[in-house]
Specification:
The protein has about 400 residues and is an alpha+beta fold. Helix content is about 30%, strand content about 20%. It contains ten helices and 17 strands. The chain binds ligand EPS. Ligand EPS binds near residues 83 and 138.
Length: about 400
């Protein structure tokens, strides 16, 4: 059983989103402010739609924390949907008096190509695609970010930090800096598209404006970097213990993500091995690498499903949002007649926010791997076990 688990619940226009997080040790400092800071980061980004002007996400902690410290019990986090006030009839849990009024019920009969609308309606035998899209909506990622903040807090106590930036958006590729800034989010968050290359940033903003004018949407690629990860998380011994596989699963589970790369990723497949693999060097000042380092980090901090002690570098590719204001053709779910897909209020692009969500998922995977390896019902136990392990691997590189 995974050691750090979470489940989310909630519809996009229902009363609230909830996350229940299980497995955090006792004695971790956690406040609503910690959660709100991350929720705010997820709400930003140029190209979001009208919904983000309605919402101002805040988390309420309903269980598992007392006097600012975790208890080791399940942590319940609640994020209310402010927009719920406009949907009390359409999303009412009880039968509504206006049941026969499709407009008042905000029913959706014209499934959007690319969204879960049609396949969900088939699978769950619904005529109103709203029964599907409310849960398929990326609004759910607010709950993931809240859950991920618990993991992030725990990792921070061990000196592990996770940040992200936008590597491309709408086909505009940011120039990669020679070296990523040590505090990645401090550098990327001030950018409206969370991009480190000011020239690309300007072009991305122009592309978003043009897509909006054309009733179109854009995707992009986000890069997540985790630092301070010791060598030895994950394992080569079994498929489901390989950390690269777990990261790919977690990132692919984010709405609209269609691809995941680690390190050089697909680009590495085009090169000879001599231009891919990272030469090993002795690095006595690198205890978390076991006293070893790498001359480069094309592996993205993972070899054989095990972390190397180098920064973990993962990228996720997001397809363009499937709600188009100039809709594609679809079919009426009731009659089979040709129609235009529904135009719901939506975003032109959500790639900057996807970076924050991807960070949350990476934090959750890393927290799980850390707890599996080092255990501990309390933060003090976890820290002692973690420090003992780092001492053990660091001694390997001391060479007598
Ligand atoms: C979304 C559609 C939009 C986005 C929403 C995701 O919502 P609405 O239909 O209410 O305008 O704003 O994202 C969020 C609400 C959020 O918090 O990120 C969709 O269909 O996925």
């Amino acid at each position: 059983m995974p050691t750090f688990r979470f489940v989310t619940a909630g519809e996009s226009h229902g009363p609230a989103l909830t996350a229940v997080v299980e497995g955090a040790p006792a004695g971790l400092a956690l406040s609503a402010d910690d959660l709100d800071r991350e929720l705010r980061r997820r709400q930003g980004g140029y190209g979001r739609g009208g919904r983000m002007r309605i919402e101002s996400d805040r988390a309420e902690i309903l269980s598992g924390v007392r006097h600012g410290q975790t208890l080791g019990s399940p942590i319940t986090l609640l994020v209310r949907n402010r927009d719920w006030a406009n949907w009390t009839d359409a999303m009412s849990p009880a039968p509504s008096a206006a049941e026969g009024d499709d407009e008042a019920m905000r029913r959706v009969f014209f499934p959007r190509p690319g969204h879960a609308d049609l396949v969900g309606a088939l699978k769950y035998d619904r005529t109103d695609a709203r029964d599907i899209l409310e849960r398929a909506s990326a609004r759910e990622t607010a709950a993931r970010v809240a859950a991920g903040t618990v993991a992030r807090r725990m990792l921070a106590e061990l000196g592990i930090t996770v940040g992200s930036h936008v590597a491309s958006l709408g086909g505009i590729v940011a120039a990669a800096p020679a070296e990523l800034p040590a505090d990645l989010n401090a550098a990327s968050d001030p950018s409206p598209v969370r991009c480190l290359d000011p020239e690309a940033e300007g072009a991305m903003i122009e592309a978003i404006d043009a897509a909006k004018r054309a009733g179109d949407t854009l995707g992009g690629v986000v890069e997540v970097v985790a630092r301070g990860v010791p060598a030895g998380l994950g394992s080569h011994v079994s498929w489901d213990r390989k950390l690269d596989g777990r990261l790919a699963h977690a990132l692919m589970s984010i709405q609209a993500i269609k691809g995941v790369e680690i390190g050089l990723g697909f680009d590495g497949s085009m090169r000879p091995g001599s231009r891919v693999h990272d030469a090993i060097v002795a690095q006595p000042g690198n205890p978390r690498g076991g006293g070893f380092g790498r001359a480069s980090n094309n592996a993205g901090g993972l070899e054989g499903g095990i972390t190397t002690g180098q920064p973990l570098v993962v990228r996720a590719a997001m397809k363009p949002i499937s709600t188009l204001m100039q809709p594609l053709a679809t079919v009426d779910l009731r009659t089979g007649e040709i129609a235009e897909a529904v135009r719901e209020r939506s975003d032109v692009v959500a790639v900057p926010a996807a970076g924050v969500v991807a960070e949350a998922m990476v934090c959750i995977v890393l927290a799980g791997a850390v707890l599996e390896q080092f255990g501990g019902d309390t933060m003090a136990d976890l820290r002692r076990n973690f420090d003992g392990y780092v001492q053990r691997i660091a001694a390997r590189g001391a060479f007598g």
